[in-house]
Specification:
The chain has 257 residues and is an alpha/beta fold. Helices cover 36% and strands 18% of the residues.
Length: 257
């Protein structure tokens, strides 16, 4: 029996290129890429968007998004985005950064960009390790978590505590929209997409700095199956990095998104 005239309910976003990514099996970067691409499509921003790729697992992000892109030095994506946005204020500028890039070598750049209220959008992927270079301890590695450079587990007495970036940046006057979400199940994926859309709307309305922190899995460097890695997010990461809204300016609350 043939069925004709089926409606298409789900297809590849126009902004997402039809290529195979380099990400490891079970990595949730691909989910986050799709969400960003869907939002750029739905807001008709593709032809007007300029992305800034960081150094890390997302270093080849420019291959996966069909919009203008540039590559920043390690940690300098917010500095580059600042320059791009100031030169092209009508463009929609966003950075796509991991925790090793944003919270370590790039900590000064992201902090001062937020403090100045730079009007661009940050997609911050937090998987708790340096994924690209072999799974070393990152600024966001959980207490007791074993990595290739903390093989007995992160000892906070000698290695310090993990940085809660959303909470830190929310204290800065220039920040307008700072939230934390996750992609460990379908319900939270939907919530993450809504947050990404709001973050781009903040920029469109010239309301200042917006950042969406997204808890993401790294099965290979965590030495877990993809399923166990998603459970790890829920059972271990979320208790230390609670999901929620950490700063939403009054002007942002008034947006109809």
């Amino acid at each position: 029996m043939m069925i004709d005239n089926l409606d298409v309910v789900y297809e590849r976003p126009q902004t997402l290129t039809p290529v195979i990514t380099h990400y490891c099996p079970g990595c949730t970067h691909g989910i986050i890429h799709r969400l960003v691409a869907e939002v750029l499509d739905e807001l008709n921003l593709r032809e007007n968007a300029i992305g800034v790729a960081s150094v890390g697992c997302s270093v080849f992000a420019y291959n996966y998004f069909d919009c203008d892109f540039c590559e920043a030095a390690h940690g300098r994506a917010p500095a580059m985005a600042t320059g791009v946005k100031r030169v092209h204020p009508a463009k929609t500028v966003f950075t796509y950064q991991g925790d090793g890039d944003l919270a370590s070598i790039g900590l000064a750049e992201i902090t001062h960009a937020a403090s100045r209220g730079e009007n661009f959008t940050v997609i911050f992927v937090n998987n708790g390790v340096y994924g690209m270079t072999g799974g070393q301890m990152a600024p966001t590695t959980l207490p007791g978590m074993k990595t290739t450079s903390s093989q007995a587990g992160r000892d906070v007495a000698t290695m310090g505590y993990p940085l809660r970036m959303a909470e830190l940046l929310a204290t800065l006057g220039g920040a307008s929209y700072i939230v934390r979400r996750s992609v460990h199940n379908p319900g939270h994926i939907n919530q993450t997409k809504k947050a990404i859309k709001t973050a781009f709307q903040v920029q469109r309305h010239e309301l200042g700095f917006a950042l969406v922190e997204i808890l993401s899995s790294c099965p290979v460097n965590w030495n877990m199956t993809p399923q166990k890695a998603l459970q790890y997010i829920e059972e271990k990461m979320i208790p230390y990095y609670p999901l929620g809204d950490f700063k939403i300016a009054d002007a942002v609350k008034a947006l109809k998104v």
